[in-house]
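Progress against Task 2.4 (sequence-to-structure conversion) is shown through the following example record, which the project officer requested during the mid-term review.
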Amino acid sequence: MAGFIGKGRILMGNFDTDPSKRKFYPVGNAEELKISVSTEEKTLKNYLDCAGGDLETMSRVDKVTVSMSLTDFTPLNLEAATYGITSVTAAGTVSDEAISCFQGYFTSTDNMINLSVAPVVKKGTTTLVDGTDYRVTHGGIEILKTSVTVPAAWTDLTISYTKMGGTVLEALISSGKEVSMIFEGFNTASANGCAKGVAKLYRLKLSPLKDLSLIGDDFAKLQLEANLLPDAGVTTAGLSKFFSWTME
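Structure tokens generated for the chain above:
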């Protein structure tokens, strides 16, 4: 293997002290997977003569980190990236959801609104008129300044609508979880074409993502970082507690 340009897929799953119980799922397309090692250096200075310098140095591993850039916004990837939990909400109908509105301002609804079915907005028994009293979006309704039914004061209304199904992410509600990872990769720079390889990263503690681009001109990415920790279950002499890499 003279050179290396890696491609391939990442599989990730919850860490279990029993390796036979670790199950993995593919994270999808990834632009980067990188292992970084930082070291701590100790030096013994030479105080014996004017020459100075070091008599002895010692380096030891201080921290091993893993960074990856994921482009697939799947529920499992979002859970890992945001310390969150995802759930699926079904489409259906909502009757007389209570909302409080103010003329000239927007009020969100509990669910996303399916705009293919017109909602019914009421103040008591009076039905408001779309385009005159309010404007509806998939996130809620905006009371227009032209409305005479809803004044410039908090007003209790009800809205009946068809809700859209989807995935709900509740972010930052759990602590950082430990995962295991497998890189099922290829060396595209191999002399014999596309040589295969498998890297196994035994125990990682994920950090939450630092940013999540909700508006932008480019495809958003999930930039994940993790500390690669030793797996105490690896006790055989000569085997790494951190990771192994088998190459064709």
